[in-house]
């Protein structure tokens, strides 16, 4: 079962993966650059109020993969040391993407959740429309698989950055927008719904003009299902997530922006800085 830090990655990809049709995705990256860093604090609530339990960091760096120039997109999730005794988490999700199309070339999920290991590697071949999976889990045999994929699909990290380039003005309020994502060897179909614009206060950072979405979640061990996911994205050229929240089976989880640097554009959505 996913722990709360893995959930943050799922919440974030659900935030921005608003379509998988060619016409809905921009073909170039306009909104971020190498050197961008985004830091979030993860907060959990269950009866006794809200508690900061961990952190997630996203970073963008230039790199090489298969002798090609690529962008490395990495998300790292950890529990704070005080909570390590209860459930220690060290999760790293890395996607290497084509710098022009932002389509993934290679993806690595390296997860250690209180001693339970998940090591997934995907190699994407869009020419053959397949992704090659190598999967290792604690107490599970090594698994290899070849997964048919459409001409445009993303992993849980590359989709965040790709979808930040979408022109949200093309969508109507309450429009339901379906999408697909490759996760754990399967293609998943979910959706988000554009809710409009709203001002959002982020503790310790400031007050933002935001674009607001809700999203569907698949019912299971963690999520209740339904359209309970809510996301606020900065309403400027950077389009960074500033706040995400969702109820889960037990309690509620939130992710709030606490630090940012290396943005490509001025953060004009920031109305008041705290």
State the major sheet. Answer: 15 strands, antiparallel
State the helix count: 3
Strand/helix succession = HEEEHEEEEEHEEEEEEE
Strand content: over 45%
Overall 3D shape: globular
Q: Regions with pLDDT < 50 over 5+ consecutive residues? A: 1-5, 13-26, 218-225
Radius of gyration: 18 Å
Q: Roughly what percent helix? A: under 10%
Number of domains: 1
The beta-strand count equals 15
Question: What would you say about this model in short?
Answer:
With 274 residues, the chain is mostly beta strands. The chain contains three helices and 15 strands. The chain has helices at 4-16, 81-87, 158-163; strands spanning 37-45, 50-65, 68-79, 89-97, 104-113, 116-125, 130-137, 143-148, 176-183, 186-202, 206-217, 226-234, 241-247, 252-261, 270-273.
Describe, in plain words, how this protein is organized in 3D.
This protein has 274 residues and is mainly beta. 9% of the residues lie in helices and 54% in strands. The chain has helices at 4-16, 81-87, 158-163, and strands at 37-45, 50-65, 68-79, 89-97, 104-113, 116-125, 130-137, 143-148, 176-183, 186-202, 206-217, 226-234, 241-247, 252-261, 270-273. Strand 4 (89-97) and strand 5 (104-113) form a beta hairpin. The protein is globular. It has one domain (4-273). The longest helix has 13 residues, at 4-16. Residues 1-5, 13-26 and 218-225 have low confidence and may be disordered. It contains three helices and 15 strands. The chain has a 15-stranded antiparallel sheet that branches.
């Amino acid at each position: 079962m996913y722990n709360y830090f893995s959930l943050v990655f799922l919440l974030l990809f659900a935030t921005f993966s608003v379509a998988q049709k060619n016409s809905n995705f921009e073909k170039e990256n306009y909104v971020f650059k190498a050197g961008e860093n985004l830091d979030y604090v993860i907060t959990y609530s269950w009866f006794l109020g809200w508690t900061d339990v961990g952190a997630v960091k996203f970073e963008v760096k230039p790199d090489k993969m298969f002798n090609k120039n690529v962008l490395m997109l990495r998300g790292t999730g950890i529990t704070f040391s005080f909570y390590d005794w209860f459930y220690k988490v060290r999760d790293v999700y890395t996607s290497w993407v084509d710098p022009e199309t932002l389509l993934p070339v290679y993806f690595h999920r390296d997860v250690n959740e209180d001693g339970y290991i998940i090591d997934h590697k995907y190699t994407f071949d869009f020419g053959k429309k397949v992704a090659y999976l190598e999967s290792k889990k604690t107490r599970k045999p090594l698994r290899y698989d070849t997964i048919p994929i459409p001409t445009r699909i993303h992993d849980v990290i590359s989709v965040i950055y790709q979808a930040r380039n979408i022109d949200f003005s093309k969508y109507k309020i309450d429009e339901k927008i379906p999408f697909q994502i490759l996760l754990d060897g399967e293609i998943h179909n979910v959706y988000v719904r554009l809710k409009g614009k709203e001002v959002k206060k982020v503790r310790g950072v400031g007050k933002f003009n935001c674009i607001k979405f809700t999203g569907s979640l698949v019912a299971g061990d963690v999520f209740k299902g339904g359209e309970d996911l809510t996301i606020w994205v900065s309403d400027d050229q950077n389009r960074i997530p500033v706040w995400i929240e969702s109820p889960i089976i037990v309690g509620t989880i939130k992710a709030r922006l606490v630090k940012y640097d290396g943005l490509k554009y001025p953060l004009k959505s920031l109305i008041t800085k705290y």
